[in-house]
Amino acid sequence: MPPAIPAPGPPAPDAAASPAPATPRSRHPGLVMPVLAFCGMVVAVMQTLVVPLLPHVPDLTGASPGAAGWLVTITLLTGAVFTPVLGRVGDMYGKRRVLLASLGVLSLGSVLCAVSSDIGVLITGRALQGAALAVIPLGISILRDELPADRVLSAIALMSSTLGIGAAIGLPVAAVVMENFDWHTMFWASAALGVLDLMLVLWIVPESPVRARGRFDLPGTLGLAATLVGLLLAITRGSDWGWTSPRTLGLLGASVAVGLLWGWFELRTVSPMVDLRVSARPAVLLTNVAALLIGFAFYANSLVTGQMVQEPTSTGYGLGASIVVSGLCLLPGGVAMVALSPVSARISAAYGPRTALALAALVMAVGYGIRFFTSHSLWLIVAGATVVSSGTAIAYSALPALVMRAVPVSETAAANGLNTLMRSVGQACCSAVVAAVLAHVTFVVGGHTAPTLHAYLLIFLIAGGTALAALVATLFLPSDRTAGTRGPLRGRVGGTVTVSASVTAARESA
Questions:
Q1: Alpha-carbon torsion (81, 87, 91, 97), positive or negative
Q2: How open is the CA angle 175-368-47, to the nearest 5 degrees?
Q3: What are the backbone angles phi and psi of residue 209, rounded to the nearest 5°?
Q4: Gap between the Cα atoms of 37 and 80, Å rounded
Q5: Helix/strand/coil (H, E, C) string of 74-110?
Q6: Other C-beta atoms within 10 Å of 284: how many?
Q7: Rounded to an integer, what distance in angstroms lies between the CA atom of residue 12 and that of residue 33?
Q8: CA distance 209 to 491
Q9: Nearest to 287 by CA among 474, 482, 153
Q10: Which whole number is the average pLDDT over 337-346?
Q11: How big is the CA angle at 70 (ends 68 and 75), to the nearest 5 degrees?
């Protein structure tokens, strides 16, 4: 068993950091942010690309509906596992090289999906695509290291928002491809975009000189992976297996047991996969709780909007819209997210990211209030969905700023990876709740079973309540005046970081 750390108190802000040998900076510094944001949007599009395809997968591949569902589940699992892991690897061995590896994996997964109609190959390709979600926290960390102080907040705001922007763009694009081209086309397009991302990063983005000390924590990585896989499998497949089935309960129980053992091990490890002492600080813990709740509230908007407007008119509330129209309902929200990212950065700069996140949660709750009372008009549905997306844009922009002001500069990618993971867990929980509500609050109309209007209204109430819960968690964060708002740049000196020699020596002697 690795020796215990002699001083259990929190490390100095940059205790684990070490400047790497000097590397050439970008010859095109003005393009670093647009290139990384483009990478983030491509990766986010991949996460939702198959959603319009899912109802047709059994006919196209001969697979069962249960197997088709794995095209979404496997992406969630690999994204959840690899995002914090690759963030830590990037902190230790180079963010740019891990970013390139992630984009290469994305391209490979897209090619596998493009060349085959076998469900096993498709699931493998989607697993590789999901692993590339680490691009977003890696990009945030690179921006923190590379950009001047006055540009960091706006840059990370846009980079973080690419998760929502990509989802809003991916659905209508995939729907158009489904209706007009062979379905493999969208995977060929994603492979081409992945290769383009690779070339742009090689040309524009420099390697960061900031490194974290220590050894890679392989046991901690395996323990984290086992905990997440058990938890997320139970959440995402519980509605199919039965929430009280031995398989679901067994996975939940195993996840809790492994998670407790993993936490005990991480607390006794000199260079842990996740620094639980840092993660337990209120500023970090409550930010991650808020991220989980915001992820839940955001995903409900994406999940039910398209399905609701596609419901047949015989239900009394459905609009009978096409798959393309249903996808386009989210496009104004994507545009709003792009427009509001710099606004969120200005709010964070002027009043602090805690204030920005509180405002975002309130806007999302108001958006669901609009949706609750305006569920019969297409334009009002789009308006309500856009308000929710606007709140999401502000929230996703503020979250990394909150994380980075509370963690050492050498742990930026890992900490943002964990925060992104919490959003993914929130989305998984939302998916399970939405599926359960729509499957059980139903009625028979026109000879088939459909969700009632009350089912959708219940989802809006749950999502709005979750946004308000995120507001409460945010209000308990340390105030912006107390914490300051220059955390994203703490310890940065001429492209490297300052090192606390005494704490570093204590860690090395341990």
A1: positive
A2: 35
A3: -80, -5
A4: 20
A5: HHHHHHHHHHHHHHHHHHHHCHHHHHHHHHHHHHHHH
A6: 22
A7: 29
A8: 13
A9: 474
A10: 84
A11: 130
Q: SS3 string of 176-223?
A: HHHHHCCCCHHHHHHHHHHHHHHHHHHHHCCCCCEEECCCCCHHHHHH
What is the sign of the dihedral through the CA atoms of 173, 387, 296 and 405? positive
**Interhelix angle 29-48/135-146, nearest 10 degrees:** 170
pTM of this prediction exceeds 0.90: no
Any residues with CB less than 8 A from the CB of 308 and at least 6 apart, and which?
A: 317, 318, 375, 381, 456
444: number of CA atoms within 13 Å, CB side?
2
The yes-or-no verdict on residue 169 having pLDDT over 80 is: no
For 132, the token pair is 């590339």
Q: Are strands 210-212 and 17-19 parallel, antiparallel or unpaired?
A: antiparallel
Beta bridge partners, 444, equal 449
In degrees and rounded to multiples of 5, residue 445 shows phi and psi of -145, 135
Indicate the helix (H) or strand (E) that contains 267: helix 246-267
Please name which of 54, 55, 72, 52 lies closest in space to residue 327, comparing C-alpha atoms.
Answer: 52
Per-residue pLDDT reduced to its tens digit, 59-104: 888 888 778 878 888 888 888 888 888 888 888 888 899 999 999 9
3-state secondary structure of 197: helix
E strand map for 420-509 = 442-445, 448-451, 492-493, 496-497
426 neighbors 296 (Cβ within 8 angstroms): yes
CB 273, CB 85: distance < 8 Å = yes
Could you give the count of Cα atoms lying within 13 Å of 303 in the half-sphere of its Cβ?
23
